[in-house]
Design brief:
The complex is a heterodimer. Chain A is built from six helices and nine strands, in the order βββαββαααβαβαββ. Chain A is of the alpha/beta class. A six-stranded mixed sheet of chain A has the order 5-6-7-3-8-9, with helices on both faces. A three-stranded antiparallel sheet of chain A has the order 2-1-4, covered by helices on one side. Chain B is mainly alpha-helical. In chain B, helix 1 crosses helix 2. The chains are: A alpha/beta, B mainly alpha. Chains A and B meet through strand 5 and helix 2 of A and helix 6, helix 7 and helix 10 of B.
């Protein structure tokens, strides 16, 4: 089932084309990595997919339903999330709990299952002991980890992640990739992740989309040649 | 002083304002719209002046003008996303200019002095104003209880709120409208010049005292009640203007909190 369907997308800032001829799908149970050099409009492409920007040409379909026929829940980690509002008056626990709100909890109290999700998410990134800390008191790496915990607390059908491992050490990155792979392979989640660590990540992903600069354009405009199937495949079924 | 009817009404109004000011104040600060209260209070003056010129109830024109500008502010905030203070500067000076021109046109025709709206008159508050304030307080408290989770996400990050499926434009406009209505109702009580201080300062102080979002709201309400009541009593004792006295109490509490936090962090640094 297609969670994301991008068809011949082009995007212009003012009159300057930055993306052209982009077409791909992200399916349920698929882990897709999106790469490209600095300034390759990777974030712009994600923002088009999420509806934060409107494509100049072509279309983006974000599925309304998940593979069980209920409302598709999207979990988005923006780029440089660690620089989020440092003065925001919230504890780590409050922020991660807010990840449960899109799971039908906007107007309901969090129940035992929600709290268990939150606990496990915080434990998975090693931040449970810091749950009563104010988020402004955390280091950049810790903020990154609670943003990831928040997404895991949401338990979304589709993960859209923009360089989520910035500032993480190699071991934490490996753990994170395995967790995402497990989510896509075992639980059928869709994952679209922008990264610069494609060498590390390629053994986990099902599809690799690389944005490359168009040689026939006078602008810094990026396109894709085709979706590549990575050579190695690391299975985590259990 | 507690036996005078006017002082009883002043205390009732102060208490009701204390319940709602920190809630609106916190969201305004977090959405980087602290000056919106100031802008709307200046625009509010234009609404009052328009009512006086047209010979209709100034409360009605005040509400209509402020709500209209509150919606316009959201539109300008989107246009000038990087420099949102531009819209504040345009509308604040524009509101004051329109108010002064309308008053000039109405030379001698008005029955109420503009000074009353500039500086407020909490001790001349009517029973009708208390009822309006009570209804407004109930509405805001209910809306806060129902919508606190969506508002938490909206103020944390609008893009996260959007991808979570929240109608961020509608929510932002409704929040601005609610802020506008609140300012239109409390401006004649506390005065256009001080309304933003009374809304923003308690939340700004409590943000330095609590780690949690809910804690900031609760402590903000306590600080607001303390500041409003202490300010009102001091104003009665020393014969000073009530709105200005309340604001000075808040500023004093802000300075004490700032000093306390600095001393606390120095002690903690020395202990490490």
């Amino acid at each position: 089932m297609h969670y994301i369907e991008v068809d011949n997308l082009a995007f212009h800032y003012e009159n300057e084309p930055v993306l052209d001829n982009i077409s791909f799908q992200v399916n349920s149970g698929e882990f897709v990595m999106l790469t490209g050099e600095n300034g390759a409009a990777k974030t712009t492409l994600l923002r088009n997919i999420l509806g934060l920007l409107k494509p100049t040409k072509g279309s983006v379909q974000l599925s309304k339903k998940n593979r069980w026929g209920t409302k598709l829940v999207v979990g988005y980690v923006p780029q440089q999330v660690a620089s989020f509002n440092a003065g925001f008056p919230s504890t780590v626990l409050e922020l991660v709990q807010s990840g449960r709100y899109p799971r039908g909890r906007w107007f309901k109290k969090l129940d035992k299952e929600d709290k268990e999700h939150v606990r496990r998410s915080l434990e998975s990134v090693g931040m449970w002991d810091m749950r009563h800390k104010k988020i402004g008191e955390l280091s950049g790496g810790q903020k990154q980890r609670i943003s990831i915990a928040r997404i895991f607390a949401t338990d979304p059908d589709l993960f859209v992640l923009d360089e989520p491992t910035t500032g993480m050490d190699v071991e934490s990155r490996e753990e994170f990739y395995k967790l995402l792979k497990h989510n896509s392979e075992v639980h059928g989640k869709g994952v679209l992740m922008v990264t610069h660590d494609h060498e590390e990540l390629k053994q986990y992903v099902d599809k690799h989309i690389e944005l490359i600069r168009k040689e026939d354009s006078p602008w810094r405009c990026f396109s894709m040649d085709s979706c590549k199937e990575p050579s190695k495949h690391h299975s985590l079924s259990h | 002083m507690f036996f005078y009817g006017f002082m009883q009404r002043a205390f009732q109004a102060s208490f009701l304002i204390s319940l709602i000011a920190p809630i609106l104040g916190l969201f305004l600060i977090l959405r980087r719209q602290s000056l919106m209260a100031d802008t709307l209070s200046h625009v509010s003056l234009a609404g009052v002046a328009l009512g006086m010129l047209m010979g209709v109830n100034p409360t009605i024109t005040n509400l209509l003008v402020v709500v209209g500008v509150a919606i316009l502010l959201e539109y300008l905030r989107i246009i000038y996303r990087s420099y949102s203070e531009i819209s504040i500067a345009i509308l604040m000076s524009g509101g004051m200019a329109v108010a002064l021109v309308l008053m000039g046109l109405n030379n001698g025709g008005g029955t109420v002095s503009i000074d009353q709206f500039l500086f407020g008159s909490i001790v001349t508050i009517s029973q009708q104003q208390i009822w309006m304030l009570l209804i407004l307080t109930i509405v805001i408290l209910i809306l806060y209880i129902v919508f606190r989770k969506p508002m938490y996400i909206l103020t944390f990050d609008e893009e996260t709120a959007f991808t979570a499926g929240l109608p961020i434009k509608v929510m932002s406009i409704l929040f601005n409208v609610l802020t506008g209505i609140t300012i239109a109702i409390i401006m004649p009580i506390v005065g256009a010049l001080l309304v933003s201080a009374i809304i923003v300062l308690p939340a700004a102080i409590s943000m330095r005292l609590s780690k949690s979002f809910t804690g900031v709201i609760l402590i903000g309400i306590l600080i607001s009640v303390f500041g409003m009541i202490t300010g009102l009593m001091s104003s009665y004792q020393f014969g000073t203007p009530p709105g200005a006295t309340v604001t000075l109490v808040f500023i004093a509490v802000f300075i004490v909190t700032l000093s306390f936090n600095k001393v606390k962090s120095r002690i903690q640094a020395n202990n490490i």
